[in-house]
# Entry
Amino acid sequence: MMGPVLRATLLKALVVLLAFGLLAPIIVVAIASFSGDGYLKFPPETFSTRWYARFLGDARWRSAIVNSVFIGLMTSALSTFLGFLTAYAMLRGNFRFKKVLASLLLTPVIVPHVITAVAVYFLSARLGVVGVRPWIAVAHTVVALPVVLVILQSALRTVDPALERAAMVCGCTRWGVFRRVVLPLAFPGIVSAALFSFLTSFDELVISIFLAGIRSETLPVRIWNSLLLEVEPTIAAVSTLLIAVTSVALGVDAVLRRVRG
Amino acid sequence: MPLGRLPAWLLLAPALLLLLGMFLVPIGWFLVASLQELGSLAEILEEADAVLLSGAVGGALINTLWISAVVTALVLVIGYPVSYAMSRASGLAFTLLLLCIVLPYFTSTIVRTYAWMVLLGRNGLINQLLLGLGLVSEPVQLLYNRTGVIIGMTYVLLPYMVLTLYAAMKAVDMRLLQAAESMGATPLQVFARVFMPLTLHGVVAGVLITFILALGFFVTPALMGGPGDMMIAMLIEREVELTQNWPGAALMTIVLLVVTLILYGLYSRFTTDEKGAMP
# Structure
């Protein structure tokens, strides 16, 4: 039999190895993106920012950045707004079919994105809205809404209904209660929700492949189209940008969590 | 403040309209309109018979089930010790473990897939390591075949399993384990007869969610697989984008949708609280 100390050490070693394995691919891409070599090689022999220069020097990549940011911001605004109304109603409302509604609202996460994408494409082709950026944002909102709901429901759960009642007793209107009590208390949660819905849209690929058309390629769609041809180092630079955006979002969220306590 | 029925429905209305207009109605319309192209019910069933039992679709279905099962098993085996360590860690160790899970989790699937394409290529890090260690004499083909698909999908799906298992393991009362130990149970017995049964619902939930997500996978197998690794979601995309075969796509969609929803129904039974293990 192994001693308990030995066993604990082995488990720790195994976990460190696995955890490192999870992070390693992302770190490798980030390092490889600064390679100065002509093709992808790890570890790189020389370092440079040539792939970033090529990435940012290309008009199609630049327009992909603009499209991604634009669609991401619209998705974030729309899904956070809709999600807030829904989360508040789900928490304070008293109506039938609440359970059914709760699982219905989460189904876009479960239904394979390719199905949602094909179906929305079917509709969009008939309406002639393939490649229209606000329309892509509306489609992204369908998959971002469940993310927002989970975050906002937990944020709103910490708002004591007694505080809302007290404000109302003191002569505040419903709108006043909402603006002066609920909104400020839930604010860090709302920012988190906005952040993660932006990220959901910014990283979304499958729906975008179908809806982007030629004029509204997002960054993931551009990566997809180039990867189908070859594994070129410019994509390492693009990927590193996406990883950086994710890291910043997670960092801001961590700070917000501390604020929320 | 409790809300009345009318104000509650008014607040819910915009989200419900979106869900209806951009999700439920398009899926329903796509399926009904595509199948109507085929004609009467008898003709639809005949076509369903022909399409679903054809070599390409049948093969894709078998690939999908097989790849999903293997990936789910691997994800469970790798995810279990990591989740266990996470549920027992605190302070800096916990923060670091969480980072290792959460950063990949929120990184775009295509970036994570690309990362493995870089690692597994002929001149990639993995082949360099294998050659350097003398385990192989020439580069191994790890990409554009089944191995690549399984490695890539396992990596992409691992965080879902870990986060689900973590929630179940965190809820276990450590005093129960101590009690079993103090009454003479060996560590193996404590694990097999106390810890394992208490976290079993988490394992079932994690396995189901991983399998459900694997069934609908599209990006990773399309980029990392070879011609023999066609999965059902890829076939649906191909029917629509390349051949505009809407009826065929609709029939395959129905199969994928029904299987997914049945498994989701099972999953809902295993997650007791409404939060579940959603992101």
Observations:
- Chain A has a mean pLDDT of 91.
- The domain at 59-260 of chain A is CATH 1.10.3720.10 (MetI-like fold).
- Residues 64 and 217 of chain A are 6 Å apart (CA to CA).
- Chain A touches chain B through 93 residues (CB under 8 Å).
